[in-house]
Amino acid sequence: MAIKPHRRYSAEEKAQLLEIVQQAQERTGQPVEEILTQLDLPSATYYRWKSRAREGCLADRVVVPRRRAPLPTPEEVVAVCAFARAHPRMGYKRLTWQMVDQDVVYLRPYQVYHILQEYDLLCQRQPPPPESLKRPREPDHPDEVWHIDLMYLYIPPRWYYLVDILDSYSRFLVHWRLNLTMHAETVTLTVQEALEQLPERRSGEPKLVHDWGSQFLSAEWRAFVTGAGVTDIKTRVAHPESNGRLERLHRTHREEGFSEEDLSAYHKALDAMAHWSDYYNYERPHSALKYLCPIDYYRDDPEARLAERQRKLAQALESRRAYWEGVYGC
Fold first, then answer.
1. pLDDT at 283 over 60
2. Would you give the DSSP letter of residue 259?
3. Distance (Å, rounded) from C-alpha 63 to C-alpha 56?
4. Residue with the larger pLDDT of the pair 225 and 126
5. How far apart are CA 150 and CA 13, in angstroms?
6. DSSP 8-state assignment for residue 141
7. pLDDT tens digit string along 29-68?
8. Residue 67: what pLDDT?
9. Fold of 145-298
10. pLDDT per residue over 107-124, tens digit each?
11. Which end of the chain is less enclosed by CB atoms within 10 A, N or C?
């Protein structure tokens, strides 16, 4: 007797087959798997039937198909089409529930989908946004993008203006200047000093990212950008997040860089800023740089520094293992 594949067996036939397998095993002593192979009965099917026999439910479960819902009426189809044409950018699920909420028609999403598909009214995927709305790619080398911003510092008896220039790729504080005014000439002078420090630079670089401050809208700034051969990039209006890396640096200045004593006099503030900028660039691990220092990305090889870390950790692990093996003698 062999099992025919894809055939549905009644509960009596299943019980008979289970009994045949059991009798064959008792009489011949063969393993169950060999008997099942001779009968072409899959072992998974056999054990499933056996489990269901213990539960007393060998009969197949009959699934009664649900009655198909009545088709939408012509009036409902017309209403759906009209609503879809009035909202061409809305997906069919949103259309469905909005029509229910607005008492237009009361249909299920799949019914609305079929109507829209039949009349070619399905919302098409929107084209990608223009390049101007996309987030710019991350810089991949030093001095490609610089962020510029001013920070107000009150040093008695007046306000001073700290101009920072931050390299976007490495978070290196390229240059800073504590100015008496916030006029355009002080900002252009600070950027010019930073550019003079570069050994070489690519055409159109660095790209200077800044807000819409009056310094960056002046004729002097525009003339400087043209003469220096750099690229001028303005952030979105009233959107400090566009210059967020430098905004975060300014927060770090306040939290870690300056004390009240440092801001008690102009010369003390200069000394504190010089000490702090050296520490920030050369000694302080940066969370955005895998806890390397900005100088490691700005003028060093970060991959080599990370590999060196892993080598030290591996050596320490071997030393630690040798220590404990010596302690326990194993």
1. yes
2. -
3. 19
4. 225
5. 87
6. S
7. 888 888 888 888 888 888 888 888 888 888 877 666 666 7
8. 67
9. Nucleotidyltransferase; domain 5 (3.30.420)
10. 999 999 999 999 999 987
11. C
Over 90: is that where the pLDDT of 291 sits?
yes
Structure confidence at residue 173 (pLDDT):
97
d(CA 128, CA 321): 55
C-beta contacts of 35-44 below 8 A and 24+ residues apart: 39/1, 39/2, 39/3, 40/2, 40/3, 40/5, 41/3, 41/17
- Tokens read off for 133: 């709305």
Asked if 176 and 273 count as a contact pair (C-beta separation under 8 A), the reply is yes
Q: In angstroms, rounded to a whole number, what is the distance separating the alpha carbons of residues 257 and 270?
A: 12
- Are 179 and 161 in contact by the 8 Å Cβ rule? The answer is yes
**What's the rounded Cα separation, in Å, for the pair 275 and 279?**
6
| Residue keyed to tokens 């220096």 | 228
pLDDT band with cut points at 50, 70 and 90 for residue 3: low
Do 160 and 264 touch, CB atoms closer than 8 A? Answer: no
Stated as kind and residue range, the H or E segment containing 243 is: none
Is the Cβ–Cβ distance between 85 and 116 less than 8 Å? Answer: no
CA distances from 76 to 81, 84, 100, 101, 217 (A): 9, 12, 12, 15, 58
| Residue pLDDT, tens place only, 166-181 | 999 999 999 999 999 9
CA nearest neighbour of 167 among 127, 138, 125, 189 = 138
Please give the structure tokens belonging to residue 239: 């959107």
Token pair in block for residue 108: 């299920």
- DSSP annotation string for 278-314: HHHHHT--BGGGTTB-HHHHHTS-HHHHHHHHHHHHH
Structure tokens at 139: 């810089």
* Rounded alpha-carbon distances, angstroms, from residue 318 to 309, 312, 321: 14, 10, 5
Query: How far is residue 53's CA from residue 50's CA, in Å, rounded to a whole number?
Result: 5
